[in-house]
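Internal ticket - ligand job 1304, pyridoxal-5'-phosphate:
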Amino acid sequence: MHKSYNVDSEGYYGDFGGAYIPEMMYSNINELKSKYLEISSQADFVKEFDDLLKKYVGRPTPLYFAKRLSQEYNSKIYLKREDLCHTGAHKINNTIGQILLAQRLGKTRIIAETGAGQHGVATATVCALMGIKCIIYMGEVDIKRQAPNVARMKMLGAKVKPAYSGSKTLKDATNEAIRDWINNPVDTHYIIGSVVGPHPYPDMVARFQSVIGLEVKTQLLEAEGKENPDYVVACVGGGSNAAGLFYPYLDDLKVNIICVEAAGMGVKTGKSAATSILGKEGIIHGSKTLLMQSQDGQITEPYSISAGLDYPGVGPMHANLFRSKRAEFISITDKKAMDWGLKLSRMEGIIPAIETSHAFGVLDKKKFMKKDILVFNCSGRGDKDLDTYIDYFKL
Amino acid sequence: MHKSYNVDSEGYYGDFGGAYIPEMMYSNINELKSKYLEISSQADFVKEFDDLLKKYVGRPTPLYFAKRLSQEYNSKIYLKREDLCHTGAHKINNTIGQILLAQRLGKTRIIAETGAGQHGVATATVCALMGIKCIIYMGEVDIKRQAPNVARMKMLGAKVKPAYSGSKTLKDATNEAIRDWINNPVDTHYIIGSVVGPHPYPDMVARFQSVIGLEVKTQLLEAEGKENPDYVVACVGGGSNAAGLFYPYLDDLKVNIICVEAAGMGVKTGKSAATSILGKEGIIHGSKTLLMQSQDGQITEPYSISAGLDYPGVGPMHANLFRSKRAEFISITDKKAMDWGLKLSRMEGIIPAIETSHAFGVLDKKKFMKKDILVFNCSGRGDKDLDTYIDYFKL
Amino acid sequence: MNRINKVLKEKKDILSIYFTAGYPSIDDTTEIIKQLDHSNVDMIEIGLPFSDPLADGPTIQESSTTALKNGMNTFKLFEQLKNIRAITDIPIIIMGYFNPILQYGVDNFCEDCKKTGVDGLIIPDLPIDVYLKHYEEIFKKQNLLNMFLITPQTSNDRIRLIDKISNGFIYMVSSSSITGTVKSFGEDQKKYFKRINDLKLKSSLLIGFGISNHNNFKEAINHSQGAIIGSAFIKFITQNGIYKISNFINEIRGKII
Amino acid sequence: MNRINKVLKEKKDILSIYFTAGYPSIDDTTEIIKQLDHSNVDMIEIGLPFSDPLADGPTIQESSTTALKNGMNTFKLFEQLKNIRAITDIPIIIMGYFNPILQYGVDNFCEDCKKTGVDGLIIPDLPIDVYLKHYEEIFKKQNLLNMFLITPQTSNDRIRLIDKISNGFIYMVSSSSITGTVKSFGEDQKKYFKRINDLKLKSSLLIGFGISNHNNFKEAINHSQGAIIGSAFIKFITQNGIYKISNFINEIRGKII
Ligand SMILES: Cc1ncc(COP(=O)(O)O)c(C=O)c1O
Ligand SMILES: Cc1ncc(COP(=O)(O)O)c(C=O)c1O
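stdout (structure tokens):
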């Protein structure tokens, strides 16, 4: 039997993963590592998690057959509608899971980083729901370009703290969140928003997000008489929406996996976030993975028009999917992504998040067959990106 | 047997309703009247409608037990989560129905009025989905205060035309839409966004929205072992979200109905939209109903901080619910509504539309018993209102 | 015999002028009627201004808004018309939306029409069935004619019904446009006019909507017994005031002056 | 014997100073070491700047950013240290995050440490298990000591494990704060120091994080064999330049000048 593409008992995906953390984080990470599986499999946890996903988040999200898109591209295109989740993106699946965990660990204060603001909103939301204090770190640049989400976090009672260092985006917000955790090692849980960070975060987040792929299985069976599509496609920032969709298909080699990265202005322009092409093995935020870095090992400032993909690394699962060639990686420029944002709006009446828009670029880069079933993860809605779209297209 | 609170065969609810339209609209209204029931009960229509509601809109929307709110107000409070519908409000239930009808009537051009912009977005959305041309009329004041929704309509390819007359809000947008229809009587269908306008609109829209109440029945049975709550509560602009929730309970007198209107600055300030208190019987937009008017019969300019409730009339169903005392009408000021917007955000992690916020004001105005089951229609999400909230609370 | 019926019986090439009561100034109503009388128009339609005139184009909308701002209302209109029959014998029709009439009380309203010498009503948003059921009798009692509209979309069956219940003229809406201006009638409209004429109705037909100059007035009277001018007249008095009305009327009639 | 072990064996009240290589100016490294030597500090920690120093407070972060902008990198650091042992005998420790070291190659890095006379390493994000599994042998081969951190949250069991594998000192993080300043040690910290001392470890303990003046230096050496000062030192050279370092050191030591 071939090796699994899922995490091993040491917290690694092939060469990638692990927990490269300073001692100041050890007690928290160790506590999580030793308890996350046990807690999240307890009956009361499972019940509360499932219940909230159903009654609060609005799951299952539909698997929608995109008729006009399918016609134009002459294959069967399905959209997994994570944009319909409460708060507008897949991020909340994870925050629901982590807040329940945090409660069971006795934590009374929550911190998180956010790029697009979706994870920040999702975290602020579950904190409001549970009546727990919440601090969100967000890069100064992202605070500007995702203003609606900043407003939402404030409405929800969270404190939004700007990160002024580096590129002032997701990476830097993550640094600040880690520093906060180091400074508050007892009462605080850090809700990481993607399948990044030290073990057990990538696995924990992937498990909470796996509901996406598991639902697709059931829904596709109903729609097409079989559980497995030919392709699963998702954009990859840190990689959590992708991991959620891919999860049940990881070791089923007949299902082709496509990861879509942000090429920014173009992979060779120096203004890009296409980690698989531009990255090398290294350590970022406590995890061994692929990341964009100088020869020296300094982390490079990434660039993408979309705040949620503007990250110089990918999760270790994805690094391994890339190195092992289990997944195909495609990168899509700002321009192509923006065009797809408009196209999906006009063809299917769905305004996607700019992150999500990237995924559809695959349709122009690859030829599919008429009988091919493609499932795209429609990871989030574009309400947060309206200003960017409107400015860009001068609408 | 008492008289039904639903529409009669002539298009009336008690004294209210009918079709007070100029001859220029006769052929369209007559076509609709003679065909809407037949078409919307055909198997292929029902199948496509149900399918789109499920796979595109994301229905059924959850019935969520609001734990913290229930604790604070010492009764059982459920929220019907229409805010989770695709596009963010209940409005899309109706536009899905009407676009399918329009297609079957061979129409190739769609017009609509909008106040909060939710109906405009919902209309633009179904038009994009079906590839049909779309023009939305919106008051100049509303274009300003609901900017995100204007942006969304543009993204979706709709043309947004400002209405400059009168109070430059929903009423005036409706006038413009009617004029457009009069000017384009052959190829155009007018998708009215609430249970207002000439018969058959109020009944047609109520039927398309009735999915809300029908789902509640099933969901409440699952949650509480019975189909009927003690109270159903909804905000009333034109009255469509309310009609949708109340529909299956109209003639079940054990279920108490509460309609919440916008008091604006206060019912006696001259800056209000509380039609049940300030209105008299008359004709507005082709329907006999209660409306705010001068002694002369000139329609009064209403006022509410919420664009979706800023309408001088109510639908004829609601006029009858009021006159017959079947429903209790409560009016809530701007201030109370805004406070509830913040409160619901902070207590349940749900940022409601300002329209929706009004409904919760009932909790401060009326005492409920511990065993009382209340279902609030959470008609829409507050993303469109973030600027208003943020400015108001100086967040 | 009602003045309207008398005119319809006696005249061809009828010119009916619409204006909004209370516009440009609140007390212009009688003066405008005087001028119209001197200009020999055949009928007068007085618009009772309404806040939400949804079947009207922008010109009439704006005149209504101004009139309301000027303080115009139903009570005032009847006051202004109190002695109108001392001034003119031209048939007078009030055109108004139903809500203000309803609030005045339909009974009262018809009574005051009778008292002041108003001959007929055009209430675009009063549907035929409601009229027949609730108001026909009241109208008849006060010897008020009710004029119905037909449009290119109105079916022959419906037109025959309207013809049957009509006791004045039928207001033939020229096209589906309420924008206020039409350059010239097109093929579609001519077909529509022919279709209606072929029905050989008992009622007279007047064409309204979009008529603005001598040319299309001539076209209109080719297909009917007369025409109604509204927006173009209001534009004229907006620009030229109310004392040069005869110029406008002469131009429409094609009289060189 | 490794210089670090020698100092630990011979001295009490150890003062170890941290600075960021390449800050304030790229070529300040040797001069700063010279000054520290003249000021009789007991150990020197050179920070290899990193773009994302997530276990550091704002002062060190900023110095790292400046150093990187100045062009600092690993290769350059070893160049600057090439002749350092002609200048000073004080133990030198490189403190750096793991990624730059990994990219340089851990083997190469350790070899260059040995060549230049570096005595030990502090790599905050190199976990113990990875170190033991992959790198301990390499470190030992080059006679490099690896210093581990403990914090108030570190359990006694884990401290005993760290003590066992340590071959230099244990870096006792004074509190859970990396903000760079602590006024004075509180009850919690004193309890923590006592708990650690009661474990009777074989390794020496130096206290770091937040020590900034004579008072808390004195407190620190009451509970340990010495203290490490970083942020306060960097603030000092930011304000006073690198030629008055002895003033800073004297003040910390409490020498009246
Ligand atoms: C809508 C949406 N999609 C995708 C992403 C990228 O994150 P991930 O790769 O973890 O799914 C984000 C991040 O904020 C997002 O908001
Ligand atoms: C969220 C929301 N709720 C309520 C309303 C009021 O309309 P109705 O009374 O028809 O439900 C609107 C109107 O735009 C709305 O957007």
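Auto-summary: DSSP finds 17 helices and 14 strands in chain A. Chain A touches chain D at residues 18-24, 26-28, 165-166, 171-172, 175, 178-179, 182-186, 280, 282-286, 293, 295-299 (CB under 8 Å).
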